[in-house]
Structure formats: structure tokens, C-alpha cells
């Protein structure tokens, strides 16, 4: 019986009434959420200041709508010129909340009295308190806007960000996007995802009269903390941080190390679904050894994750400290040799098939995957070199170049 119930919960609508809460319509989308082929056009930006450099990239991918947003601000107002703020917002059920947060969250954080605590230079505790207050304020503000529109907006968004001061880095997380810090050649810190199945999150959900089914809040929402999602925040007698979905961020303060800090990565779960923390750090480090173009590095991250099988929107912000890896002539040489080697292998595979039976790109990638190829980028492996393989393939087979655009990552392996 349990198996039958879970199947029905995954396919059809059902209604759940929660202790005086509004009626929630629950549906696990099983069809129609994806395009026939991914949209690979990217939004890019970069900048520098306060001894930081950053690059960012976002791509719609296979999803029918782009729901991600981001913020990158170097130099904050109100006397905080040496401070910087970066964030990624992963929207769901629409992009409204993500877009609003990217434009207004920073203001809610820095303008509330808790942030400064009456001091010219905010203390660590004042900053942490102000960030929390800012999240709760913007969530309540968006609820008021939504109610004026008669509850039309049912969207929500996770948020992961960093507030970088001259002496500290504050990681901010609400949901299952993730941020990490690479220090001295390894992952030094990463935020913890807020999933409904986490013991403390599950306890709060159950205390609010809800349940966790198929690792989702009431069988529907895959995150236990988010901004927006007001259908899950109307349990009478419970405060804003005690609801089925909480807008409260976790804030982590890390003292900066000028000598050892390398870079920070902020990314939505479309990235983390297919790359582990160490894999992504190793990949970024290897890319920084062959290019100073941070936009290019971010583009390679999202492309690699697409070819690794991510079906979600993808957004990534890369922030580099002065101690970030520098271009290595040896790494540049090995990269050029690898590209040349791959070109020769693609030519060899195509010639082996014969002119009358030209293999498709899927066959070429699968054949390459069976071979031991030296010096592939760590963490990215062959998927990170798909663009090189595709370029050679299209040059040798221009009449079949259109077919390569729609080849899915799942078909590659």
C-alpha cells in the first residue's frame, strides 16, 4: 500500500490541510518541465576591487524557464566601501522571488539597525544578526506584496551568498544552493544544504504539522528553507522560523587568511547535482592555472556540468582572492598537448569508421570514454573537453553539425 501511495503522490495532485494553514496543492512534475534541447546561451559578468576578482555565468540549460538570479557588488554603501557582497538565488515555481531578492536583499541586510548595532564598523555578532534580520524582513515584505496581489505569487528561492569584509568572510545560506572556500589547496569550508530529510529540518516540519515524503516537504518541495514559498508559511501559532519552510539563513563567519585563501565558489544545486565539492575545487584550480579569464572559467563549469548530466538551471559565481592559483606555463603546455591529442583521436575514430559510415558525436564520445587519456582536467574529466571534441567533429563533418546541439549528456556515456 505504501508503494502505491508514493507512486500516486509522485504523479497526481492531492490536497493536504495543515492546522489552519491554507490548502496546499501538491504535485511532483513528471512531464513538460524540460526542453527538447538545452539553451546554452550564457549571461556573463566580471569585475574587480577590494583586492578581489570575480566572474559569473548563468545558463538556462534544459529547463523551460530560467529561474536563477545573482548579485555581485564590490564596495557597499553607508561607509562600507571595503566590503563586498555576492549571492546566487535559485528560484522555483517561478522567478519572481529570486529576481526580487537579487535587487533588494542586500539593502534589507545593511539598512536594518541590527547590522551595525550602533557601531561605525559592525562587529561580527552585529553582522550575523543583521543578515538574519534582513532575510526575515525581506520575506515578510514579499509576503505583503504577494497578499496585495491576492496571493498570485507562489514562487520561492534559495539563497547562498558571501559578505566579504577586510577581516572576515561571512557565508550565508538558506536552502540547497551551496558556497565553499578553497584555502591552501583544499576545501576549507562549505555550507550545509537545507534538505527536508535533515533531522533538525524534519523535526521543525513535523512540529508545524507537516511531513517529509519522498524527501520533500509534504511530498512536494525539495528544500526546507527558502525565501518566498508562502503556501508553506501559514501555520497559525508558529513564528516565521518555525514554519514548514523557514526563511532563516545559517550564517558562518570565517576569519580571512591573506596568505592561504584562494577562491570562493557560489552555485545553485544544478552545479552540485553533478560535481562534488572537491571535484569542483580541483576543476577550478586547474582552470585558473591556464587562464586569468574568470568568465571563461565559469562558462567551463556550467558547460561541464551540462555534459555531466545536469538538467537544471545553472548559475555560478567565482570570487578570487590574491592567493588564487596563477597561470602555470607547464599547465598551459599540458592543456595544449591534451587538446591536440583529442583532435588526433577524434580524427582517428572517424577515419576508422570510413567515409560512408560516419559515426555520430555520441559514438565518438563513448569511444573516447573507454580510453585512458592523460592530463584530463581533474573534476571535469572528459566532459570538460566535449567542446574541443565537438569542434573537431563539426570541422570534419560540417553536414552533421546540427545533430551535435541536441545530443544529451545522458547519451554521451
UniProtKB/TrEMBL annotation:
SUPFAM superfamilies the UniProt entry points to: PP2C-like, Protein serine/threonine phosphatase 2C, C-terminal domain
Q: How does it sit in the membrane?
A: Lipid-anchor
The UniProt family comment states: Belongs to the PP2C family.
Domain of life from the UniProt record: Eukaryota
Catalysis performed (reactions): O-phospho-L-seryl-[protein] + H2O = L-seryl-[protein] + phosphate; O-phospho-L-threonyl-[protein] + H2O = L-threonyl-[protein] + phosphate
Locate the PPM-type phosphatase domain: which residues? Answer: 53-321
SMART domains recorded: PP2Cc
Give the keywords, sorted.
Answer: Cytoplasm, Hydrolase, Isopeptide bond, Lipoprotein, Magnesium, Manganese, Membrane, Metal-binding, Myristate, Phosphoprotein, Protein phosphatase, Ubl conjugation
- CC annotations in GO: cytosol; membrane
The UniProt subunit note reads as follows:
Monomer. Interacts with PAK6. Interacts with the phosphorylated form of IKBKB/IKKB.
Q: Where would you find this protein in the cell?
A: Cytoplasm, Cytosol; Membrane
Q: What is this protein called?
A: Protein phosphatase 1B
- Supply the EC number(s): 3.1.3.16
Keyword Methyltransferase annotated? no
Q: Which cofactor does it need?
A: Mn(2+); Mg(2+)
Q: What class of enzyme is it?
A: hydrolase
* Keyword Membrane in record: yes
Name any one GO molecular function: manganese ion binding
Amino acid at each position: 500500500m505504501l508503494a502505491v501511495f508514493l507512486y500516486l503522490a509522485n504523479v497526481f495532485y492531492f490536497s493536504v490541510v495543515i492546522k489552519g494553514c491554507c490548502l496546499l496543492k501538491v504535485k511532483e512534475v513528471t512531464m513538460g518541465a524540460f526542453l527538447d534541447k538545452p539553451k546554452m546561451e550564457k549571461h556573463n559578468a566580471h569585475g574587480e576591487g577590494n583586492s578581489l576578482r570575480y566572474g559569473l555565468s548563468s545558463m538556462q540549460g534544459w529547463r523551460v524557464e530560467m529561474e536563477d538570479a545573482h548579485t555581485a557588488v564590490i564596495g557597499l554603501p553607508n561607509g562600507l566601501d571595503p566590503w563586498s557582497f555576492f549571492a546566487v538565488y535559485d528560484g522555483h515555481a517561478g522567478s519572481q522571488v529570486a529576481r526580487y531578492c537579487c535587487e533588494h536583499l542586500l539593502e534589507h541586510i545593511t539598512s536594518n539597525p541590527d547590522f551595525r548595532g550602533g557601531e561605525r564598523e559592525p562587529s561580527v555578532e552585529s553582522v550575523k544578526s543583521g543578515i538574519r534580520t534582513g532575510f526575515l524582513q525581506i520575506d515578510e515584505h514579499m509576503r505583503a506584496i504577494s497578499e496585495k496581489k491576492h496571493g498570485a505569487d507562489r514562487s520561492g528561492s534559495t539563497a547562498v551568498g558571501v559578505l566579504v569584509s577586510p577581516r572576515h568572510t561571512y557565508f550565508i545560506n538558506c536552502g540547497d544552493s551551496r558556497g565553499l572556500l578553497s584555502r591552501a589547496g583544499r576545501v576549507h569550508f562549505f555550507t550545509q544544504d537545507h534538505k527536508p530529510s535533515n533531522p533538525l529540518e524534519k523535526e521543525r516540519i513535523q512540529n508545524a504539522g507537516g511531513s517529509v515524503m519522498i524527501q520533500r516537504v509534504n511530498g512536494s518541495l525539495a528544500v526546507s528553507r527558502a525565501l518566498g514559498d508562502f503556501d508553506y508559511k501559514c501555520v497559525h501559532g508558529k513564528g516565521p522560523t518555525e514554519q514548514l519552510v523557514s526563511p532563516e539563513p545559517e550564517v558562518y563567519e570565517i576569519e580571512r587568511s591573506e596568505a592561504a585563501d584562494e577562491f570562493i565558489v557560489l552555485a545553485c544545486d544544478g552545479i552540485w547535482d553533478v560535481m562534488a565539492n572537491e571535484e569542483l575545487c580541483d576543476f577550478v584550480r586547474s582552470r585558473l592555472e591556464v587562464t586569468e579569464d574568470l568568465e571563461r572559467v565559469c562558462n567551463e563549469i556550467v558547460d561541464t556540468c551540462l555534459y555531466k548530466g545536469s538538467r537544471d538551471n545553472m548559475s555560478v559565481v567565482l570570487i578570487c582572492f590574491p592567493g588564487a592559483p596563477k597561470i602555470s606555463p607547464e599547465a598551459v603546455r599540458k592543456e595544449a598537448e591534451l587538446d591536440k591529442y583529442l583532435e588526433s583521436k577524434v580524427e582517428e575514430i572517424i577515419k576508422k569508421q570510413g567515409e560512408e559510415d560516419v559515426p555520430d558525436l555520441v559514438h565518438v564520445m563513448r569511444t573516447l570514454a573507454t580510453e585512458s587519456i592523460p592530463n584530463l582536467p581533474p573534476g571535469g574529466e572528459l566532459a570538460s573537453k566535449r567542446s574541443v571534441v565537438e569542434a573537431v567533429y563539426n570541422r570534419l563533418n560540417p553536414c552533421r553539425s546540427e545533430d551535435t546541439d541536441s545530443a544529451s549528456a545522458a547519451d554521451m556515456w
